[in-house]
Amino acid sequence: MYALKYVQAKSVKEAAALLAANPEAKLLAGGMTLIPTLKQRLAQPTHLVDIAQLAELRKIEVKGGKLVIGAGARHHDVATSAVVRKAIPALAGLASAIGDPQVRNCGTIGGSVANNDPAADYPAAGLGLNATVVTTKREIAAEKFFQGMFTTALGEGEIIVRIEFPLVKRAAYSKFHHPASGYAMAGVFIAQAADGVRVAVTGAGPGVFRWKAAEAALAKGLKPAAIDGAKLDASGLNDDMHADREYRANLVRVMAKRALVKFSGKK
Ligand SMILES: Cc1cc2nc3c(=O)[nH]c(=O)nc-3n(C[C@H](O)[C@H](O)[C@H](O)COP(=O)(O)OP(=O)(O)OC[C@H]3O[C@@H](n4cnc5c(N)ncnc54)[C@H](O)[C@@H]3O)c2cc1C
User: Fold this and answer.
1) Which of the listed ranges 2-6, 97-101, 260-264 does the model predict with the highest average pLDDT?
2) What are the two backbone dihedrals, phi and then psi, of residue 175, each rounded to the nearest 5 degrees?
């Protein structure tokens, strides 16, 4: 038996009030991470505050030079949105390659970003596109938001409302899927903005990170060959039964090159 109270919030305001009144409550969005966590008794909240049905969290629009995606947008919504496909096609492509159809139809961008799994895809887009996470309390730059494995800047009772992605000249994402889950063994998001190139890596390390040596190399020209000369210290990368750190370092290089090939439109 689960000794918890399930509440379906009717608004973000109500969800925030429920969290404030019940410090051990947890938000439930797509449930793709939280439900398995509960089943394994790794979390035992007093309340589950369900925000999955809130239309106010599912809006997708371009506003003020940014692509604004509500935290409750499902991965499928992002993958198939005409607005996303036009504004930042790489983001729609990224969403279309998350997990499987069930995960894409239930899982939300807000849940993914809040969870900050070190192998998740959206954190790479967030960091690569220099996004801003807007919560019920403040605006947080991606650089400050993603703080390492399953750790974010979110405070108690703080709800992600939307994520704002600045529009860029070009962006591309390439990932090497884990064959069972679809999570990234290594995923590289590259964005070319007016103020420079950003390269964000997921899956390879204990958390999403910017590969600054690649950014410096690409500043001289966005060519796949530039990646060969970019230093990548493998010592801090993940080393597990799926891939050792040297293999992951090589995957990062290969994924970066594949992303750059997408830039030039070649296969
Ligand atoms: C089989 C499988 C394969 C997967 N493959 C991939 C993959 O390839 N790539 C990938 O990136 N991900 C993958 N995922 C994860 C998936 O993307 C989930 O959607 C995501 O991790 C959690 O989103 P959710 O909406 O289900 O959140 P939930 O599970 O409902 O919640 C997760 C956490 O976030 C909190 N939370 C939820 N919404 C908010 C909010 N708005 N504000 C603040 N906190 C919030 C919850 O309280 C909870 O702590 C996979 C999951 C599964 C089960």
Assistant:
1) 97-101
2) -135, 150
CA 94 – CA 51 distance, rounded (Å):
24
CB-defined site of ligand 1, < 6 Å: 26-34, 71, 98-99, 103, 106-108, 110-112, 114-115, 117, 120-122, 154, 159-160, 181-183
State the amino acid at position 155 in one-letter form.
G
Average pLDDT value for residue range 185-189: 97
Non-local (6+) Cβ contacts of 44 within 8 A are 3, 4, 38
Which tokens in the block code for residue 10?
């009717």
183 Cα nearest atom in ligand 1:
8
Q: Which of 19, 32, 137, when mutated, tests ligand 1's pocket best, judged by the most ligand atoms within 8 Å of its CB?
A: 32
Nearest protein Cα to ligand 1, atom 46? 27
Would the pLDDT of 164 be above 80? yes
Query: Which tokens is 64 given?
Result: 């003020």
Predicted structure pTM score: 0.96
What is the structure's pLDDT at 267?
42
Alpha-carbon span 206 to 17, nearest angstrom: 33
Alpha helices in 97-234 (DSSP H): 101-106, 109-115, 122-128, 142-145, 212-219
pLDDT tens-digit profile of 234-257?
999 999 999 999 999 999 999 999
Q: What is the mean pLDDT of residues 115-124?
A: 98
Question: DSSP secondary-structure letter at 177?
Answer: E
Determine the Cα–Cα distance for residues 143 and 209; give it in Å rounded to an integer: 9
DSSP bridge partners of 50? 8, 28
